Amino acid sequence: MKALKYLFSIFAAACTLGAQTAKSPELALGDIVKFGDKSYMVVFNFDNYPKYEEFQRNTLIMKNTNAAILDLIDKIGKESDPVAKTNLERQLKQFQDEFDINDKTMQRGYNFSSKRNYMLMFLKTNICIPISKEEFSQFQFKSGEKINPLDIVSKDGAHYMRKTSIDGFSENTQFQKVLRDSLTYRSELAQLRKRLDNNSNLKEVSEISEKIAELEKALKQSEQELFTKYGLKG
After folding, report:
1. What is the distance between the alpha carbons of residues 7 and 93, in angstroms, rounded to a whole number?
2. What is the distance between the alpha carbons of residues 178 and 224, in angstroms, rounded to a whole number?
3. HEC states along the chain?
4. In the chain, pLDDT over 90 holds for what percent of residues?
5. Are 159 and 131 in contact (CB under 8 A)?
6. Residue 76: which of 93, 89, 91 has the closest Cα?
7. What span, in angstroms and rounded, lies between the C-alpha atoms of 232 and 106?
8. Span 171-183, average pLDDT
9. Band (1; pLDDT cuts 50, 70, 90)
10. pLDDT tens across 94-131, in order?
11. How far apart are CA 6 and CA 67, in angstroms?
12. Could you report how far apart the first and last alpha carbons of the chain are, in Å?
């Protein structure tokens, strides 16, 4: 097997993350889904978040192994010392074997192959708010609002209450876009504000300030949509 086949554009994609709802019935394996002018076949359903987390960890391991393989191939091509080259080739073989094992495991576990492109589809998102230990023990917020035990989600020793759910592919796609835009605006604003610090170039200060004003307006609109549609505060 040639390491050059390990081109990981596939990590922009995956399979499906879903739950059965009135708006988005559960997709069965083998179902064909249209997305734009392309068609995709469902190869796996993540019916709970821990499964999805495990999948993400496994794909990250494969991505890192692939990076090590490509790095070793580059080093081998540049190495002139025979002994050093042999050692590098031995390391390369170990990483290739490790990658092959993980690739086969992913095929068995998720119908996932490193040689294929995939698309990740979110069909259901649960929006949760944190609950303190005291609130969890009493099933009641400090405000007096009761907490339905069935709406509680526990993870890594922390507790959360499911506030609302977003059902359907198009609805989740829109939510992911608005959330991603908001995070992007925040990141860009932080970088621009750093550039303003101790900047004595008046032209640059003016241009940066103008860009900051534009981003602040966009961020305000994005966060207003997050609050109005999903109850999320920035």
Report:
1. 18
2. 10
3. CCHHHCCHHHHHCCCEECCCCCCCCCCCCCCEEEECCEEEECCCEECCHHHHHHHHHHHHHHHHHHHHHHHHHHHHHHCCCHHHHHHHHHHHHHHHHHHHHHHHHHHHHHCCCCCCCCCCEECEEEEEEEECHHHHHHCECCCCCECCHHHEEEECCEEEEEEEEEECHHHHHHHHHHHHHHHHHHHHHHHHHHHHCCCCCHHHHHHHHHHHHHHHHHHHHHHHHHHHHHCCCC
4. 42
5. yes
6. 89
7. 35
8. 90
9. very low
10. 999 999 999 999 999 988 888 888 888 888 888 888 89
11. 9
12. 49
Measured in residues, the chain has a length of 234
Q: Which residue has the higher pLDDT, 219 or 122?
A: 219
d(CA 127, CA 88): 48
Copy the structure tokens of residue 107: 């095929």
Domain coordinates of the chain in residue numbers? 3-121, 126-165, 168-234
Q: Which one-letter amino acid corresponds to residue 144? A: G
Tokens of 43: 């190869």
Given the structure tokens 């091509």, which residue do they identify? 77
Which of 162, 137, 173, 149 is closest to 35 using CA atoms? 173
pTM for the full model?
A: 0.61
Question: How crowded is residue 61: how many other Cβ atoms within 10 Å of its Cβ?
Answer: 14
Is the pLDDT confidence value at 162 over 70?
A: yes
